[in-house]
Amino acid sequence: SKLTNLGHLEMTWRSRVRFHPLLVRILHKSRLRYYGKPEKAMDMPYQAYFEVADGSGMTSMVLWSSLCPEWYNSMKVGTVLLLEQYAIKDSYPFKTQPTPGDSQMKRFATIEISLNVRNPPTKISIIPEERVKPEWGLPEVKYRFITRSELDGLPHNYSCDVIGLVTFVGRAERARKREHCEDFWLYRWAHAIDGTSDHPFILELFATSQPDVFERIHPMTYLVCTQMRVVRNLTENPSSTIYLTTSNESQIFITGWHKGQPYTKDTKVKNFIQWMKCQSEADQIKKTVIGGYYPFPRPPDNFSNY
């Protein structure tokens, strides 16, 4: 059928009611958002953002309501979609923005694709990777993997991807989203090593929309975390308080979930796998810890400073 592209849509969408089918690849995926309220009767108050791209550039795509439980788990980073009967809207200005792996890619920030059950009812088709043709010009998923030795030189809030061997995972903890509210964030701390430094990655992992992975992080698993943010406590000794925290677009993968993921082609991922082949599993197991309370960043040495 006759296809359009994101660049053409951005220029012409206000003068059209119907749009030609669109072929895009998913580059980023946000956590699932629940926006239900007790006073509002809504069947499926869910929403999820994706960043999608074709040969002309990248824009946001929003999955609404009952389409979320139907499609969210099938729409993975790297998935190619054929979209028909979608809507185009002005973009929501306050959403989070993931950092693209390809800094040269053009971003269409004024529009977003809206996928709804009705008005109009969107038709979504997933194209298997083996049927994706090079002449479609769809971009590959690119990452920003760093090694532990590179971390100390990175600025606060820098966005990156990491891979490492888990040596410690703490218990799940809760933090209030806002003071005096009933909603909580669920998170856990983890350490992962990659052989490039004597220090581990210190990872603050909030529960994303992957409960099956979040609950199964354990020592000796290969852990991949994407779209992590560098956190530096600049008032203290910066090198001792640097850690990584998840963002709205973070994805977490452990052993058993890596097969077929786009990052398996990344050079730094391959280097890590080579390093692991040279390690003694028995030696690494002796250094691993699980559970317990992990106070981080550590409080000052004396009470008056605290």
TrEMBL record:
GO molecular function: single-stranded DNA binding
Stretch forming the signal peptide: none
InterPro entries per UniProt: RADX
Record Pfam families: RADX (PF17659)
Name of the protein this chain belongs to: RADX protein
Organism placement in taxonomy: Eukaryota, Metazoa, Chordata, Craniata, Vertebrata
Gene name of this polypeptide: Radx_1
